[in-house]
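Retro notes (design track)

What went well: tokenization of the new backbones is finally stable.
What didn't: we kept losing track of which sequence belonged to which structure.
Fix going forward: every design gets posted as structure first, then sequence, in one message. First example under the new rule, 383 residues:
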């Protein structure tokens, strides 16, 4: 982006912040008759000073803009971002405000022309769905549709009538399957999550397990070690109760968003936070999730000096305590997580370069797990 356009967008951001009443620091602002700072309204002079202050901070050699540039920016913002900015008058002084509370250039919807252009982009890039090495497009398209609330209802019809070019393409398609072809479910799953629409899923909890069917609400999508996981609120029809499930996207066999209906009272069970659940762990394990969030506890882990260096810059967990202890040629880190297998696996991957120190119960559990692992290598034992 050239400097002129870059400064134009900087000006749009400052105007947006001001009209949302998020004032940047100004060198001078309007005062009322009693000499007290007046937060509202934003007079033209205040906006101009705010923009020029930000330009001066952004680039020392930037030139301040004139009032006519500010007025043009107001017009351009409305055309570019679809917002409406009213020009009002108070005491013969002009001031601006958004037409409705909460309006912002950060909360825009696509214009009809832009929506049509985006739809054409999706159609043109459908070929990437079948190209080896282009798996990223499933994620990119899903995120774009979710961000712009752009879910076309005719996509299945369009895909159904799209013609293949002879049998050559079929053979190429068969020979270029990527490892996680299941990412094709991302657009539909993100739509279900965004619209809070129930779906009917067929899935396997294990690769060799039986195919199961459940009415589900898609609540959360996240990546774990380059694999997509889906946080689901599902209904057990036999037990007549709800349960939560963390499911690898590759385990989904089919999805139907037409025939699914939630039982009465199902909505009352949605007071759950998947981000909180994930933030309390060293990793995520697919499977059925307990009904209550487990408590995290302070955990101390010793790491050898050379290994510890990387986690002094890039913390091993977001809850890492800044206070560190040095001991036995290494560093003791304190984090707050749930004690479970993901914690043990994280420590074990470093071999003798890492030790779980506290809590004592967790250290004992890990000792038992290590003994069970070592027993697999007894001289008289084998598969």
């Amino acid at each position: 982006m050239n400097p002129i356009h870059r400064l134009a967008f900087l000006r749009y951001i400052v105007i947006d912040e001001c009209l949302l009443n998020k004032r940047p620091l100004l060198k001078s602002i309007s005062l009322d008759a009693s000499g007290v700072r007046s937060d509202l309204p934003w007079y033209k002079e205040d906006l101009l000073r705010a923009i020029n202050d930000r330009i001066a901070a952004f680039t020392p050699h930037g030139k301040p803009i004139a009032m006519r540039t500010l007025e043009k920016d107001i017009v351009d913002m409305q055309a570019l971002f679809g917002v409406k900015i009213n020009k009002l008058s108070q005491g013969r002084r002009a001031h601006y405000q958004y037409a409705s509370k909460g309006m912002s250039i950060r909360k825009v919807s696509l214009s009809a022309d832009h929506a049509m252009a985006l739809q054409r982009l999706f159609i043109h890039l459908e070929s990437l769905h079948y190209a080896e090495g282009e798996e990223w497009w499933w994620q990119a398209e899903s995120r774009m549709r979710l961000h712009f609330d752009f879910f076309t209802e005719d996509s299945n019809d369009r895909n159904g009538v799209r013609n293949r070019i002879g049998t050559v393409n079929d053979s190429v398609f068969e020979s270029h399957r990527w490892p996680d072809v299941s990412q094709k479910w991302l657009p539909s799953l993100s739509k279900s999550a965004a619209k809070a629409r129930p779906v009917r899923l067929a899935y396997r909890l294990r690769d060799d397990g039986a195919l199961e069917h459940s009415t589900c609400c898609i609540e959360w999508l996240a990546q774990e070690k380059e694999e997509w996981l889906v946080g689901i609120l599902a209904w057990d029809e036999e037990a007549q109760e709800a349960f939560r499930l963390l499911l690898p996207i590759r385990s989904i066999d089919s999805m139907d968003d037409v025939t699914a209906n939630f039982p009465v009272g199902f909505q009352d069970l949605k007071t759950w936070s998947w981000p909180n659940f994930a933030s309390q762990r060293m990793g995520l394990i697919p499977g059925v999730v307990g009904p209550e969030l487990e408590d995290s506890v302070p955990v101390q882990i010793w790491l050898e000096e050379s290994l510890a260096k990387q986690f002094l810059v890039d913390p091993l967990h977001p809850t890492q305590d800044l206070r560190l202890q040095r001991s036995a040629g290494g560093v003791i880190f304190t984090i707050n997580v749930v004690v479970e297998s993901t914690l043990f696996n994280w420590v074990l991957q470093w071999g003798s370069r890492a030790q779980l120190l506290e809590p004592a119960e967790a250290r004992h559990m890990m000792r038992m797990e290590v003994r069970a692992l070592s027993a697999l290598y007894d001289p008289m034992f084998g598969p």
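Added context from the reviewer: The longest strand covers residues 212-224.
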